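Let's practice the habit of predicting before peeking. Look at the sequence and jot down your guess about where helices and strands might fall. Then scroll down.
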Amino acid sequence: MNVIWLVLLSVSIVFAIFTGNLDAFTKSIFEGAKSAVEISLFLLGIVSVWMGITRILEDSGLIYRIAHLFKPLISRLFKNIPDDHPSITAITLNVLANLFGLGNAATPLGIKAMQELDSLNEDKGTITPEMMIFIVINTASIQLIPFSVIGILVGNGAANPAAVVLPVLIATVISAMAALLVLAAFRKILK
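Done guessing? Here is the structure:
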């Protein structure tokens, strides 16, 4: 990957020199770096808030009530997970973070869910059907309200940043359903 970035940067510099746009190229590099830092700090704030909320939900026991609400759906998708297993809570937290468009905050929750799912695995180090389903759901990540995207749009002065909510919801639901259908088809073919 570093080689690709080096090639792209080198080609850009060469074209900037030959087209006489070296000043504009230099200015855009620094503006891009500044923008990247600002967006990173903004996203760090969102992730920190969500992780704090997650911790409060866990410490208060409210997450178990939320997990209970999601239990019928989780149980239908993950048929081999015992009802009282901690992986249900971890999966629920991950799904909630993704529902609110906080994919960065969902990552540590996804890792915890995979660790909990692996604790059920008799053959450690191999992927189970439940792990496959979780990876597909986590990757497709249905988003009800994409807070990160809305935050970036607000930060860049968008006139109507909430306009992305319905298209994102439709696109992520369709992609999640398609991904689950493809997984089911491959599992059926490879049996």
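How did you do? The chain has eight helices and no strands.
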